[in-house]
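Question (not urgent): is this output format expected?
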Amino acid sequence: MESVKAIFFDLGDTLASTDPPYLHRIAQAMREAGLEISNNELEVEYIKADYKLFLKHKDRGGITPSEYRQWFLPILYESLLSDRQVNQFRQEVRDAMSQIEFGRVALPGAIELLDYLKAKGYILAIISNNDGRTEEKCDEVSIREFFDIILDSTNLDLIKPDSRIFEHALKNLGLSPSEAIHIGDMYGSDVMGGMNAGLDVVWFNHRKIEGLSHPLIKEVFGLDEIKDLF
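Got this back:
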């Protein structure tokens, strides 16, 4: 890690989350819509869908934010539904989701980790597949001050795993890929996307998803483990 000058982070479910977590809210909404699925089962299928989307992106040579949104849910629902009417089910899930109240929170250890890394002199950045409100969400959980740049897929019209969003961050900071590392929870968007852009990566596998790890990929299960890497 001696050559690393900057650390890029994903935001959602890496540094910040909601209470209840976003994927747990989806699982709850699916249960209310009549699908028997546990929180863990939904998490596994969601991560796998994200990886399948990376493979689709790699096969096509690119992906736009609108394509990501267009393709993600069909890929996810294909693995979950057999004989159900997908459109009706999706609407029922949306309706149930809209009734679930939530707050936004920093993940345990996030502020301590960012404070530690900032004190070490690292440039810190966020690269988030988000809705255009990434900076606002960082403010809500009191982590905005730590970051030199915050990139939001909606505002840039670029989205992970597309390497161009990582390249945009590198160019903005005047760095080469060897001088940055990316940390995130999504195996396709964060891990494979970062690697495809030439960055070293750390998979924050706090859900302990099995079957996707690779010997060349650093994998941690808690934010406190990241300190040991730097």
